[in-house]
Design goal:
CATH class of chain B: Mainly Alpha
Strand content of chain B: under 5%
Distance between the termini of chain A: 29 Å
CATH architecture of chain B: Orthogonal Bundle
GO molecular function, one term (chain A): ATP binding
Radius of gyration of chain A: 21 Å
Number of strands of chain B: 0
Keywords (chain A): ATP-binding, Cell membrane, Membrane, Nucleotide-binding, Transport
Strand order of the largest sheet of chain A: 6-7-8-3-9-10-12-11
Order of helices and strands of chain B: HHHHHHHHHHHH
Largest interface: A-B, 32 and 22 residues
Distance between the termini of chain B: 41 Å
Membrane topology (chain A): Peripheral membrane protein
Subcellular location (chain A): Cell membrane
Family (chain A): Belongs to the ABC transporter superfamily.
CATH topology of chain B: MetI-like fold
Helix content of chain A: 25-40%
Strand content of chain A: 15-25%
Structural class of chain A: alpha/beta
Structural class of chain B: mainly alpha
Oligomer: heterodimer
Helix content of chain B: over 70%
Order of helices and strands of chain A: EEEHEEHEHHHHEHEHEEHHEE
Number of helices of chain A: 10
Largest sheet of chain A: 8 strands, mixed
Chain lengths: ~325, ~325
């Protein structure tokens, strides 16, 4: 049984006097216990909205969330707000993109780590602070006793993200959702943070949903990858599968857009034509069609379904990139 | 042996010395940093000096003043006519008022009264304003609309006019009616300011992060939103001191304050004796007026300086 089973999750933003926006459009994927699943796509494809919807963190007004989010067979979307709050931070942890703005600027770090332990483990402030010291130590923050008393602005970017990881993992959740955890960090720190995350989830058996636009992160970390485009999953495959033989033209385009050292320097960097706003609605065919190099007549018409591939993944494309091995 | 272990002793000591000197001395807290910038700012020093002097005089009034402010000296006004209100004499550096009370002592005790009214009016206004603003910003919806429209109405009226109306509503004027009136006039300003920063906090990442940890709504408001929203309100409070002092003085000047003639209050002194005897003894008006202006100026200068010091744009 999967730990997290997202079924047909849709988030629609209502706008006054304008067409509603389908930010996430029938997203389905599963996460097995201990597994690391990637959610990849460019800005605006619905990755973050999906994660916020899973956690029930979208604003109450102005949007409609439909579908099911089964965590341990409980639908988080129909849970009472207070029950959901009890699970957040305890069963499901979350790490955000910008570590500075995700920490409260006026509270010392220790209190912020302690808060979650007080909330979910019923610890006293003193006991929680003692435990917090060990947690900071575990995420590789030097001199944790001193850091506990410091404020977020006194820490470096990498240390802040380590602290956020410590907070998210304080209650040993079974699922961790990391929303672009390395985007705000420089490259050397990125690598450290990713290694740390990998170690921690491997050691504790925590399942990880990694939301990112960085294919390098995916390559290093994820077991399964879901590629999203315009609110829908367009391709799902194992890591090696995805990098070795991308089937969806969008996935292929993403992979080719990564700068490489081993090809000649004179050539232009590959780019996907147009921008993410040049879409057609999914109801009229494939949203990616206007930007696709492999577009054919069949791409326009009905919604393209997400169909299972023979290798256990799934693909939403009428004219996929051919594989070496015939299907 | 490798690294600095392999160096000669004095070289190694030198390196350790240099490391110790450049070591991270721990970060600087916002308050300490702001405090340091305040001490370097001439505006703050001028404003601060005025206020400290004013505070000392107010607190130690009985020690500083040469006489009891309500004690009358009949010998000073023995042969009083309209144009012979006694000026400075031995023991009475500023002379006396028309009732024969030592004017200097009354000025000194006036500082006490002014401080009392200013501080209380500001604190009460701050408290009510923070309460309303926090509720509006945290709850939102129709409660927010209701509170904000209410503050709109109050802000639409000139503050002194509103204060006069409030004082007039009371059956009998005491110094408390003045304090309450001045406080209420300042409530909408605080409420508005706080609500604005609360709204900004509501959409902030760290509040989202706290919600993602399952923190209870009450704690999100009290621990995460409110403390981050208070800076603007605190600055406004220092500026409000000045306004409160001026408003309270204005109410007394207009005869709407405490009718007790023994109370030494600058606005009252200015309004009764200062106006009546302005042509013969203008000092009776000059000194209270000057005191009000200087104190209000002191609070304004300090408030401005604090605002500047707390502004994150000025941090290094």
């Amino acid at each position: 049984m999967p730990l997290l089973d997202v079924r047909d999750l849709s988030v629609v933003f209502q706008r006054k006097g304008a067409e509603p926006v389908r930010a996430a459009d029938g997203v389905s994927f599963t996460v097995e216990p201990g597994q690391t699943v990637g959610l990849v796509g460019e800005s605006g494809c619905g990755k973050s909205v999906t994660s916020l919807a899973i956690m029930g963190l979208l604003p109450r007004r102005g949007n409609r969330v439909t579908g099911e989010v089964l965590f341990d067979d409980t639908d988080l979307l129909t849970l009472r707000p207070s029950d959901l709050r009890d699970r957040r931070g305890r069963d499901i942890g979350m790490i955000f993109q910008d570590p500075l703005s995700s920490l409260n600027p006026v509270i010392p770090l220790g209190v912020q780590v302690a808060e979650v332990l007080e909330r979910h483990r019923g610890r006293s402030r003193q006991a929680a602070l003692r435990e917090a010291r060990g947690l900071l130590d575990a995420v590789g923050i030097p001199d944790p006793a001193r850091r506990l008393k410091e404020f977020p602005h006194q820490l470096s970017g990498g240390m802040r993200q380590r602290a956020l990881i410590a907070i998210a993992l304080a209650c040993k959740p079974r699922l961790l959702i990391a929303d672009e955890p390395t985007t705000a960090l420089d490259v050397t720190i990125q690598a450290q943070i990713l290694t740390l995350l990998k170690e921690l989830v491997d050691d504790s058996g925590t399942a990880l949903v990694m939301i990112t636009h960085d294919l390098g992160v995916v390559a290093g970390l994820c077991d399964t990858v879901n590629v999203m485009y315009a609110g829908k999953v367009v391709e799902r495959a194992g890591r090696h599968q995805l990098f070795g033989e991308p089937r969806h033209p969008y996935t292929e385009g993403l992979l080719q857009s990564v700068p490489r050292l081993d090809v000649d320097r004179g050539g232009r960097l590959h780019q996907i034509r147009g921008s993410v706003t040049d879409n057609i609605p999914w109801s009229a065919g494939c949203a990616f069609a206007p930007r696709c190099d492999r577009v054919i007549d069949d791409c326009i018409g009905d919604t393209v379904p997400l169909e299972p591939t023979f290798r256990g993944g799934a693909l939403r494309c009428t004219n996929p990139v051919p594989t070496e091995v015939p299907a | 042996m490798s690294g600095i272990e392999a160096l000669a002793d004095h070289k190694r000591r030198r390196i350790e010395e240099l490391i110790a000197r450049t070591a991270d001395a721990g970060g600087v807290s916002l308050v300490r940093d702001a405090g340091r910038r305040l001490l370097r700012n001439p505006t703050a020093i001028v404003g601060g000096t005025i206020i400290v002097l004013f505070l000392i005089v107010a607190i130690f009034a009985p020690l500083v003043a040469p006489h009891d402010p309500v004690q009358r000296f009949p010998e000073l006004i023995k042969d009083l006519t309209v144009d012979t209100i006694p000026g400075a004499t031995a023991g009475h550096p500023l002379g006396s008022d028309p009732l024969g009370r030592d004017f200097a002592s009354r000025m000194i005790f006036g500082a006490r009264q002014t401080l009392f009214v200013g501080v209380l009016a500001t604190l009460i206004g701050l408290l009510l304003g923070v309460l309303l603003g926090a509720v509006a910003g945290a709850v939102g919806g129709w409660i927010d609309v209701l509170i904000m429209r209410f503050t709109d109405v109050m802000l639409a009226l000139p503050s002194l006019l509103l204060a006069i109306t409030l004082v007039a509503l009371a059956s009998r004027s005491t110094q408390w009616t003045v304090i309450i009136a001045v406080a209420v006039v300042n409530v909408p300003i605080f409420a508005r300011l706080l609500r604005g920063s609360m709204l900004a906090q509501r959409g902030s990442d760290h509040v989202l992060a706290a919600r993602a940890l399952g923190v209870k709504p009450r704690n999100i408001v009290l621990r995460h939103m409110l403390p981050n929203s208070l800076t603007a309100v605190i600055v406004q409070a220092t500026l409000t001191f000045a306004v409160a002092i001026l408003d309270a003085a204005a109410l007394s000047f207009l005869g709407l304050g405490d009718p007790d003639i023994n109370r030494a209050e600058w606005g009252l002194m200015l309004g009764v004796d200062g106006v009546r005897y302005f042509e013969v003894r203008p000092e009776l008006a000059y000194f209270p007026a000057l005191a009000i202006i200087v104190v209000a100026l002191g609070f304004t200068l300090l408030g401005e300086a604090i605002r500047e010091a707390l502004d994150p744009k000025n941090r290094r």
